[in-house]
Amino acid sequence: MNRIKTLKLGCIPASNTILLTGILLLIWAFGSYLIYILTTQSPILCFPPFSGCTSISNAGDYPFSGLFYRSLILPLAPLLGLSMYFIIQFLKKINPHIHSNIKHTLFALGCIILPISLIITEAFKDGHRSHPSYIIELHVLFAGIAFLTLIIFQVIASFQLLKAQNSIFYKFIFFFSLLPIMLIMLQLLTHIQHINDIVEWNVFTVVIIWNILIGLRMRKYKESSLEANKQ
Length: 231
What we know:
mainly alpha; two-stranded antiparallel sheet; 8 helices; membrane; transmembrane helix; transmembrane; DUF998 domain-containing protein
């Protein structure tokens, strides 16, 4: 039996779990900012991915938006780790000869380091703006680890998918996985105002869209397999 078909979260198929996680993460980031605007006196009003007027985590420093922020991200962190596990299983199905070291590396990055660092990162967001400097430094450190882990996971997975199937879609996916690296290089090489927050929002958006695209591909792969089995 096709192993991809049997992978589920309860009654939710693996591909739908990945799609749902990606959509909820986008709702988490942009929804937290919207609640911050609606519930805060004199909020910073803009479209953050373009202007970088505020960071993603800024909403976690206010009571109402912070409650929404934490109530979504803390359960979504292990769900994101589970999504990474499903992607690894999909990669193994596409490329059964993938080296075991690559599988173990992807598992460590996506299923262990990523969710743990994300939980630790957002645990510091308690709806208050005043924190000791070491709390802020820990938040930045673990946020960096989470972002970097996710980027490395996606680059490795994209390259392995491209090696297995040299299609236009996987070429696009591999290029898409490199966009965060290009954005970070732009951040390091330029001195544009608010560049750090602009890069943060755009890197976040790109890595989540990558997950959604893989989820859609998994769904299509499953449908194609079902059609092939019928014939």
